[in-house]
Write a structure and sequence with these properties.
Blueprint (H helix, E strand, L loop, with lengths): L3 E4 H6 L1 H8 L5 E5 L2 E6 L9 H6 L11 H13 L11
Length: 90
């Protein structure tokens, strides 16, 4: 998606309309005298560690995590230590 360029005045005039464009994924470059001042992007979604997700499982849950599952999760983590480049998925 090509970034949109707007002036500070356009942002101030209708910030709600600008945010309506950002929410679905638009990147907006705010300019003053044709020079970039700021970039608005959608916020990253919150992320949880596997340990945090597992801690949310109720005590009376019938879900089980056996040693094989734990080893598989750990092996997956170890095999992908480099940061992922999500731009390739767009």
């Amino acid at each position: 998606m090509t970034p949109l360029h707007i002036t500070e005045a356009e942002l101030a005039r209708d910030v709600h309309a600008v945010l309506d464009k950002v929410r679905p994924g638009a990147e907006i470059i705010i300019e003053q005298n044709n020079s970039p001042v700021a970039i608005l992007r959608p916020a990253l979604p919150p992320r949880r560690k596997i340990s945090e997700v597992l801690a949310l499982v109720p005590e009376n849950s019938k879900a089980t995590m056996d040693e094989s599952f734990a080893r598989n999760v750990q092996a997956s983590i170890e095999s992908h230590r480099e940061p992922l480049d999500g731009s390739a998925w767009d």
